[in-house]
Amino acid sequence: MSQALQQERHVAAQSAEPRVRLRSARLAYGERVLWDGLDLDVAPGEFLAVLGPNGSGKTSLMRVLLGLQPLSAGSAEIGGEPVQRGSRRIGYVPQQRAVDVTVAVRGRDLVGLGWDGHHWGLGLRGRRERRQRVDAALAAVGAAGYSDRPVGLLSGGEQQRLRVAQALVSDPDVLLCDEPLLSLDLAHQRMVSELIARHARGREAAVLFVTHEINPVLPLVDRVLYLVNGKFRVGRPEEVMTSATLTELYGTPVEVVRVGDRIVVAGAEAVNNGVHHHVEGQP
Amino acid sequence: MTGLFDFTKTGYLLGHDFVQHALLAAAVLGVVSGVLAPLVVARRMSFAVHGTAELAFTGAAAALLLGASVGAGALAGAIVAALLLGLLGLRDGDRDSVIGAVLAFGLGLGVFFLWLYPGRARNGLSLLVGQVVAIDSTDLTLLAGSAVAVLVVMAMIYRPLLFASVDQDVAVARGVPVRVLSPLFAVLLGVATALGVQTVGALLVMALMVTPGAAAVRVTSNPALTILLAVIFAEVAAVGGIVLSLAPGAPVSTFVTAISFSIYLACRLAGRSRLRRLRV
Fold first, then answer.
1. Best interface-test mutation with A: which of B153, B165, B166 has the largest number of A CBs within 10 A?
2. Quick one: angle between helices B17-42 and B46-66, nearest 10?
3. Which of A39, A54, A62, B272 is deepest in the core (most CB within 10 A)?
């Protein structure tokens, strides 16, 4: 994407109604405050990376927006309406996990569940539309070639393509991605994140992308939300990913170095108990 | 054993009401268990089926002792089991040990009830290994009614349940009430298991509730097709098992399990070459 185009899109995005809106949002479990006073607008087509150490509330933020976790204070809106459980406006891409070969589902079934899996009944009447939708979503992510194979036999990268198709098939306003690149190799990390960014932009969906590793998504990111120990910072990557900002957030010296087109953060691991590549558990 | 292939005797017995009742019951059971089996396999619930069957046996033994309907007793026992398992073992990690604990106690209780019951030996065995002649037309009505109820509820919850079974996190994110569906499916399993206790007996319910599903997922990954295949496999095993058991007068369950297991082996073999082909 050219610089000018990116600029133009950014301007257009800012004038539109935000897809996600948090106002004075606070989340605390007993004494422990994950974040407080969080104001956040995510515009249509915007790609927001959510970064931070384990336990900083990244997954909890996803759960709040999915309506699974009530805020301790403040408000959260999706598309101008308060968050609700099982919103049709949200597509969700989880981390890749092995699917057992004995679970009888094909790629197209997985994507189909994203379309109408939450409905009661057998859904025999909407079959034609379902098929068209699923085929279109499969084609969009380049998964049409293996859509009839059992999901359990597919590679991690192939499965994540299907998950992106599953999240996109219902044309959501917001895409919540919770560590979708975990356990993928570098080539697949890039492929999956570009897929997410491209389709979100094409459909004017806002993307919240939780990741512990910013580099695979760095060229795609519009803004960063960095959460650390109850503090946070929102801004463009070059504003947030600096030694000064992260040192302030972590409360301990953190060095941010640019190596080529990569960002290397040194010092934050110590705060994070030395475990950087670790799956954030649910609270 | 001379009567094992005595088809005149089989033909003669097929003319009798009690045999026809048994065949009808088996056919109904085949449909219900075939529909449930693929999801039992997907949700790794074979042990839960086993535990539920044991408690259905306990319920049936209690009913025998109290002079109530054995079918209703089995139903009550299985539903109590399903609710217990649903409530105690919501988390995957817990489930296995909870079932183990509940199952052992339930079986012990059932044995105790049978010991208290005067005509214990004969009836006790029939509850464990099944006895086709035990089914009368009242039982058949209860059976058919329960089966229809299970199928209707299953048709209602099938899509979200499949979603929750293959992709729990995304299903929750999309608003599927996973916490309601799990115990609900456990209750459906309980009802179906109770139906099975009367025909193939408590110990061998797995031959119909698990094996056909396990066989079907070996040969196809199309969810609708797994159900169709599992129903066919369960029908062949249940109805075929009863017909074959007639002439020798041997326990139904032996034949049902043998047929069911043969189908499973055949599907495993077929599935192996299928996987080899798909992996390339």
1. B166
2. 140
3. A62
